[in-house]
Amino acid sequence: MIQTRRALFLGFFIIFTFSTRAQTVTEFNGIDRHYQTCLDKGSNMLNCFQGYYYQMDSLLNVVYNNLRHPLNLLEKAALKKEQLNWLARRDAYFKEVDTALAAENKDGFAGSDSRMIAFDDKARFVRKRVEELLIKLAESQKHQSK
After folding, report:
1. What per-residue confidence (pLDDT) applies to 118?
2. Lysozyme inhibitor LprI-like N-terminal domain location, by residue (predicted)?
3. Which terminus of the chain is more solvent-facing, meaning fewer CB atoms within 10 Å of its CB: N or C?
4. Distance CA 56, CA 34 (A)
């Protein structure tokens, strides 16, 4: 299972890394469609939730780097500051999610539903940031093409 997740993560990372600046909302939404298709199968659903989170996290890094690449030093510094602020908010939110999961696990076993909800909450938080960065990337590419 861990090897499957790693292979999925690595494959996804490679695909998006080599499609530099080709990130589109259509591709982004493709992840959501894949996620929903996985859930619709009704089996191994925890893996669907985990995979979705890892895909969003991988895409976040790729989109951030694609956005950062053509910027000048001042713009890079501003983007980095913005991202560090977001990372602080993410860490605080993830701590809340983990605390809620731990509270449900006080008897030593959190059900699969609780773990799925935790992964989904984290993935949706990251997804929102990916969406924000994709919008910035599209705007940046539009200005570069002028």
Report:
1. 95
2. 44-133
3. C
4. 12
**CA dist., res. 61 & res. 126, Å (int):** 10
Q: Sign of the CA dihedral 19, 25, 26, 27? A: positive
| C-alpha–C-alpha distance, residues 118 and 121, integer Å | 5
User: Do residues 68 and 76 touch, judged by C-beta distance below 8 A?
Assistant: yes
Q: Which of 131, 90, 97 is nearest to 116 (CA)?
A: 97
Six-digit token string for 56? 């969003």
Question: Would you list the domain boundaries of the chain?
Answer: 2-144
HEC assignment per residue over 37-83: HHHHHCCCHHHHHHHHHHHHHHHHHHHHHHHHCCCCHHHHHHHHHHH
Q: Give the angle subtended at the CA of 51 by the CAs of 35 and 135, to the nearest 5°.
A: 65
From first CA to last CA, the distance across the chain in angstroms is 47
Distance from the Cα of residue 67 to its chain's centroid: 15
